[in-house]
């Protein structure tokens, strides 16, 4: 057993950390306040190769592994959780299913555009009436000659509106529930495909979340991903890896909050001494650091399993569950360490606390992670 990161993984961490501090952190609070997505940041990530970390060079990637990918999401989220999820949704939700299920033509066309960052990706599973019960979707795709006609609404779509390529799940056989779901690659600008309401959110406010509307939207049959009826399996296996991206996001948020709290606890004086001299504060920091280390081990392990071609679905559900719950506790405690100042926008910890909450909700709520883990234990 070797817990040492490779030289390449350490170099990637340093590169992403430098980039995050120089190009992401300075505008994070302003973008959060203004709910502003910044495409320039994504373009700079593309220049660094981050948009295609795990994909082979022949498809525009940099041929690194999934541990490198989670390190990148962690480092970005340490300063801006919105930027972390932009990359996570792009890479593990939009690009992965094309890498895994796409034919050669789809990989050459769509995966390459995503890997090089010429295109930004999104993943559209959830609907107004089907969140946790993903198989309960209503969006339909009716075959008509060489095309499919999509009708329906998707909600809560990360990168909605700003993305160029969408993985959309729809029923090709509405009577067959999950066995009748198929996956499609839909390009921005396709006639009949529009973006609806943009959500106003508690956290990750510079990551756009929107509704997608399909009204007689015609998709060439070449854009069917995998086989007809294979869509639910594609959706679920995509989430197996995606969830670990959210674990990495939660880990980064928690680390950012601890760093800020530890610095503050050394500087802030009350009763004539730094507040960290009180065990009540130093024990908080110790608990935070311990939970972060456990989150990191679970997250890196799940990514390592994926890189090694071993089963990683349970490990990924566990990392997301643990790191998400830990991030919520840690960021709440970070605000506590800052006292009243932590409750204001003068310091970043209130943003970390608002951002942490989503990691317990999306890519399957943490109740659903427990359901997934429980089913795997008893299968
Ligand atoms: N891998 C492969 N196959 C799987 C699978 C997996 N991980 N999970 C389920 N399946 C298969 C089952 O084997 C079964 O196949 P058969 O019919 O051939 O036997 C089939 O799928 C149906 O499985 P279930 O009976 O377990 O399905 P279910 O309807 O009970 O739902 C669920 C299972 C795990 C609760 C699923 O609905 C789920 O994951 N819900 C949460 C939805 C979710 O995570 N949404 C995230 C949206 S994306 C997002 O949020 C992005 C973002 O934030 C950035
Ligand atoms: P519901 O399913 O209605 O759940 C409500 C509550 O009931 C939750 O606490 C839940 O845990 C609980 N519950 C439900 N069923 C059970 C059960 N069987 N056992 C125990 N408890 C249960 N979706 C996408 O497809 N693509 C995206 O890019 C995307 N991005 C998102 C971004 C944001 C900011 C948000 C808020 C959501 C996003 N989602 C996305 C949707 C997200 O995955 C869903 O919100 C989530 O899966 C929960 O679904 P729901 O909101 O409908 O809640």
TrEMBL record:
Cofactor(s) needed, names only, are: FAD
Q: Which family does it belong to?
A: Belongs to the acyl-CoA dehydrogenase family.
Pfam families attached here? Acyl-CoA_dh_1, Acyl-CoA_dh_M, Acyl-CoA_dh_N
Question: InterPro entries in the record, alphabetically?
Answer: Acyl-CoA_DH_CS (IPR006089), Acyl-CoA_Oxase/DH_mid-dom (IPR006091), Acyl-CoA_Oxase/DH_mid-dom_sf (IPR046373), AcylCo_DH-like_C (IPR036250), AcylCo_DH/oxidase_C (IPR009075), AcylCoA_DH/ox_N (IPR013786), AcylCoA_DH/ox_N_sf (IPR037069), AcylCoA_DH/oxidase_NM_dom_sf (IPR009100)
Please state what the protein is called.
Acyl-CoA dehydrogenase
Q: Which reaction does it catalyse?
A: a 2,3-saturated acyl-CoA + A = a 2,3-dehydroacyl-CoA + AH2
Q: Domain Acyl-CoA dehydrogenase/oxidase C-terminal spans what residues?
A: 229-377
Keywords on record: FAD, Flavoprotein, Oxidoreductase
Q: Which organism is it from?
A: Lentibacillus halodurans
GO MF annotation terms: acyl-CoA dehydrogenase activity; flavin adenine dinucleotide binding
User: In its keyword annotation, does this UniProt entry include Flavoprotein?
Assistant: yes
């Amino acid at each position: 057993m070797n817990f040492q990161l490779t030289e390449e993984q350490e170099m990637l961490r340093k590169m992403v950390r430098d980039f995050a501090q120089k190009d992401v952190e300075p505008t994070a609070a302003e973008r959060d306040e203004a709910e502003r997505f910044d495409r320039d940041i994504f373009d700079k990530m593309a220049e660094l190769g981050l948009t295609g970390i795990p994909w082979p060079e022949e498809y525009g990637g940099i041929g690194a592994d999934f541990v490198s990918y989670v390190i990148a999401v962690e480092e970005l989220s340490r300063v801006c959780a919105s930027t972390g999820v932009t990359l996570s949704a792009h890479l593990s939700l939009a690009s992965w299913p094309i890498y895994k299920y796409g034919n050669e033509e789809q990989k050459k066309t769509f995966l390459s555009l995503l890997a090089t960052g010429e295109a930004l990706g999104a993943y559209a599973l959830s609907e107004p009436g089907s969140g946790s019960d993903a198989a309960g979707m209503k969006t339909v795709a009716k075959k008509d000659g060489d095309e499919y006609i999509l009708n329906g609404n998707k909600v809560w779509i990360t990168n909605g509106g700003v993305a160029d390529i969408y993985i959309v799940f729809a029923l090709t056989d509405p009577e067959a529930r999950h066995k009748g779901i198929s996956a499609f690659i839909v390009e921005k600008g396709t006639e009949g495909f529009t973006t609806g309401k943009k959500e106003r959110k508690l956290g990750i406010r510079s990551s756009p979340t929107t509704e997608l509307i399909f009204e007689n939207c015609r998709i060439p049959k070449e854009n069917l991903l995998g086989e007809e009826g294979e869509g639910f399996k594609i959706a679920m296996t995509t989430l197996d890896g995606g969830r670990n991206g959210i674990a990495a996001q939660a880990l980064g948020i928690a680390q950012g909050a601890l760093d800020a709290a530890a610095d503050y606890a050394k500087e802030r004086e009350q009763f004539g001494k730094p507040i960290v001299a009180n065990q009540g504060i130093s024990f908080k920091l110790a608990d935070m650091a311990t939970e972060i280390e456990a989150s990191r081990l679970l997250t890196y392990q799940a990514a390592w399993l994926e890189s090694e071609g071993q089963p990683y679905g349970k490990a990924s559900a566990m990392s997301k569950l643990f790191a998400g719950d830990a991030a919520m506790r840690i960021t709440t405690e970070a605000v506590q360490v800052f006292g009243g100042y932590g409750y204001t926008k003068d310091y970043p910890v209130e943003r970390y606390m608002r951002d942490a909450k989503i990691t317990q909700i999306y890519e399957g709520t943490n109740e659903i992670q427990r359901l997934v883990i429980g089913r795997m234990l008893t299968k």
